[in-house]
Design goal:
The complex is a heterodimer of chains A (307) and B (107). Chain A has nine helices and nine strands. Chain A has 307 residues and is an alpha/beta fold. Chain A has a domain of 192 residues: P-loop containing nucleotide triphosphate hydrolases (Rossmann fold, 3-Layer(aba) Sandwich), CATH 3.40.50.300. Chain A is globular and about 70 Å long. In chain B, strand 3 and strand 4 form a beta hairpin. The longest helix of chain B has 13 residues. Classes of the chains: A alpha/beta (307), B alpha+beta (107).
Chain lengths: 307, 107
């Protein structure tokens, strides 16, 4: 379930992963090492039964501890039984972050460059990605993992590009998590791939919090959505490495204020690279593809060991 | 929320708790977390656990940015933060994205 919006509650639909049937047995055998040492500090309950019968009438917390035998040599143990506050100070996304780091290591070892592509529903992610894969062709061989609540419609459309595609259906969960991606990898033939594109669930809120182990976060904004969208969803845009303005062919029809849009994107995500594209007419696609090819070449030069 | 809760229940059991009275979360001002949604999820998930009827306390962590030009930190409440000194947008958020289980009140 999602920490942000509480989706996936309750009775969760099982996560479905359907691939192409390249059954590569990459065993992502998550070695959850639950090495907890359960050091219960309760005061040895030897049933002395001193018949104390706890008659402190005004106690606020009603201890229902049965037979607390005040074991004389363990006074501190009895104290530990009382109402107390313990410090934890651990990140809640820690588990996802850890799995994302594992994905990242796996990707680096294979020399893959990985995109996490995010946008609202209907901003044109699937068409844009299908055209990206086609345009890259053999210059950068690509595979796609696509997340959706239901249906494999997008996966089918993406397969038209000829790339291997694995579908993750998240049921009621509004975002992909690192663990789902690692399971999906088991369904994909990664041999010869150089670029892995992860098309996230259409949602500009929760996916911002979930690292998948990607190299680049790509956020799409279509001209039909309004220039102020970056201001409405700042965390998503702030975390972007690249922002794509899609459906540029429609810009004139919907009185898209380009200057305002660019200024808004800049104000929320000063570091992102900007691309203005139309997957339909091909405008801007060459520049975008070159950006990906350069990112992959940079990865090659770095090798797998740079952080 | 289930992440926070399962972490809390694990920690409570390790400490030998028989009951959890309160969970304290540290939530960054820019974490994207919606307090009402957390509360709702918390109430939906806790029945039947050690944390049944427990309180959920949220502590807000302010967003602090680093200005590379002025070499100083500044506080702001949104991501479109400009340095109050030089009006440059900051590229570095130093705190404010936290989502952390801070402490547990147990018995």
């Amino acid at each position: 379930m999602c920490n942000d919006c509480g989706c996936g509650l309750p009775g969760e639909t099982p996560i479905g992963i359907t691939g192409h049937g390249h059954g590569h047995p990459h065993d992502h055998g998550h070695p959850h090492d639950h090495g907890h040492e359960h050091d219960h500090e309760h005061g040895h309950e030897h049933p002395h039964s001193h018949s104390h019968s706890h008659s402190h009438g005004d106690e606020t917390h009603s201890h229902s501890h049965s037979s607390h035998s005040h074991d004389h040599s363990h006074d501190q143990a009895a104290a530990a039984d009382l109402h107390r506050t313990i410090e934890i100070r651990r990140s809640i996304l820690e588990k996802n972050d850890r799995l994302a780091e594992r994905n990242r290591g796996f990707f680096r070892a294979r020399g893959l460059i990985v995109l996490n592509v995010l946008s609202s529903p209907g901003s044109g992610k699937t068409t844009f990605l299908r055209e990206t894969v086609k345009a890259l062709g053999n210059r950068l061989r690509s595979g796609v993992i696509v997340g959706d609540l239901a249906t494999d419609n997008d996966a089918r459309r993406l397969r038209e590009s000829g790339a291997p595609v694995v579908q993750i259906t998240t049921g009621t969960v509004c975002h992909l998590e690192a663990e789902m991606v690692s399971r999906a990898l088991g369904q994909m033939d990664l041999q010869g791939l150089e670029l892995l594109i992860i098309e996230n669930v259409g949602n500009l809120v929760c996916p911002a919090s979930y690292d998948l182990g990607e190299d680049l976060r790509v956020v799409l904004l279509s001209v039909t959505e309004g220039e102020d969208k970056p201001l409405k969803y700042p965390p998503m845009f702030n975390a972007a490495d690249a922002v794509i303005i899609s459906k540029m062919d429609l810009a004139a029809h919907c009185s898209f204020d380009r200057e305002a849009a660019l200024a808004n994107i800049r104000s929320v995500s000063p570091k992102a690279r900007l691309f203005e594209v139309s997957a339909k007419t091909g405008t801007g696609m060459a520049e975008w593809c070159n950006y990906l090819i350069e990112a992959h070449q940079a990865r090659r030069r770095e090798g797998p060991f740079r952080a | 929320m289930d992440g926070a809760l399962s972490m809390a229940l694990d920690q409570a059991r390790q400490a030998g708790a028989t009951k959890v009275f309160a969970l304290r979360l540290r939530v960054g001002a820019l974490s994207g977390v919606v307090p009402d949604a957390l509360q709702f999820a918390f109430e939906a998930l806790t029945p039947g656990t050690l944390a049944e009827d427990a309180r959920l306390d949220l502590e807000t962590v302010p967003a602090r940015f680093w200005c590379a030009t002025c070499k100083s930190e500044f506080q702001a409440d949104n991501l479109m933060a400009l340095c109050p000194n030089c009006q440059t947008p900051s590229r570095e958020l130093r705190s404010g994205r936290e989502l952390e289980l801070a402490s547990l009140e147990i018995e």
